[in-house]
Fold Pup--protein ligase.
Amino acid sequence: MTARRIFGVETEYGITCAQPPAAPGHEQQVITADDAARYLFRRVVALGRSSNVFLRNGARLYLDVGSHPEYASAECDDVHQLVVNDRAGERILDEMTEEANGLLAEEGIAGTIHLFKNNVDSAGNSFGCHENYLVRRRRDFPAMGEALVPFFITRQILTGAGHIRPRAGGGASYAFSQRADQMWDAMSSATTRSRPIINTRDEPHGDAELYRRMHVIVGDSSVAETTTMLKVGMTELLLAVLEDGVKIRDLVLAEPMRAIREISHDTTATVPVELATGRRLSALDIQEEFYARVRGHLDAEGRSAELTAVQRKVLELWERGLRALRTQDHSLVETELDWAIKGRLLERYRAKHTLGLDDPRVARLSLAYHDISAVRGLAPSLVARGLMARITTDEEIADAVTHPPASTRAKLRGDFVAAAQERRRDITVDWVHLKINDAAQRTVVLKDPFSPVDERVDALMAALQA
Ligand SMILES: Nc1ncnc2c1ncn2[C@@H]1O[C@H](COP(=O)(O)OP(=O)(O)OP(=O)(O)O)[C@@H](O)[C@H]1O
Ligand SMILES: [Mg+2]
């Protein structure tokens, strides 16, 4: 075990409505992405008058005006639990999509709404998958940033979702990450260039004297459970090592924002980038360093034997992913890492039909990889054919759709929301507050994200059920 840590993942989904061409002489109602999102949230809004709600599983579901549906998982304290909760979010949104498609059909509108767990739409707009990690305030966070920025910039060679990138002069090439190019755009105008990759939010959603919430916006959304597991798990282990006081300062990049793009575009992962020290190392070299230092510290402290099963899986996949790149034998991770799973799928399809990477049919297949639909998406059939690994069960996911993680503050919130729904009581909830909207306006502030029990909440629940 490493020190307990809270984490949660926010996923923004891409949304579109595919419509057949209108029959000659017939008008057809066009469903824009905004319209589709409104159909998606119609029942949520009808139930709670708002498109920003907390669910009985502790998560937050919301839609900002004219933007992407977002699901923010409840607070988790274990990587396996987080993967389950992230998948539960997909199921919830998939059910909402099916319902919205039913509404379209009822209204006689031809079209099918699709939700994509990816990071860029057909118009080139980018949307995110943000990771949140609780960090202890007493640690020197800026110093940790010296390790974290190069870590996040190079992590994409393992956890990138794979991206078909149009080339300027025509054609296309495969890149590790969908998000890397967008980060450049988002950041080239910012003054502190590395800041937007990770930041500590003003709202730690907890006791501000003890904790910070590290907000990471640089990652790709992950489809394969094993990729989500690695993305969050390797970060958790690095944070544990840094919080132990280990300093990693010699891997600072000379130009992080340039490196993030170059690394994404170099699928050999071996082209060097420049470090602040003047040394030149590849993304693969840098990740091997991070792996060796994390592993080395845990071994030296005698802690490796105490790691949880999922933490051991994370270390094993981290090492194997690096070996796959070093040996250029992608078969080592071809069922576990998104860029490899998707890359292989696209290669097979192209070979069979003799298509270029820039062919629209290849783009459609690539998009279908991210479609969260249980019927239209590719993931279920890839799993069934042994081409995509899983670490969760359908039962675990079904349970997490309606039940909060039992070991964190999410338990208090989820149970409170469930009780209010059953009693039809009006409440207001956010990450730290639980409030009954009646004359007494009773409110409880939950500053400890680790605690699943609280006597004040017991009293509040009693008041709710009275
Ligand atoms: N103390 C905490 N430390 C780390 N993560 C937390 C903590 N409390 C909550 N979280 C996680 O942080 C995420 C917050 O999601 P939310 O979308 O509300 O984020 P935000 O960044 O505050 O808001 P917005 O997306 O509106 O900018 C959730 O996934 C939640 O589980
Ligand atoms: Mg958010």
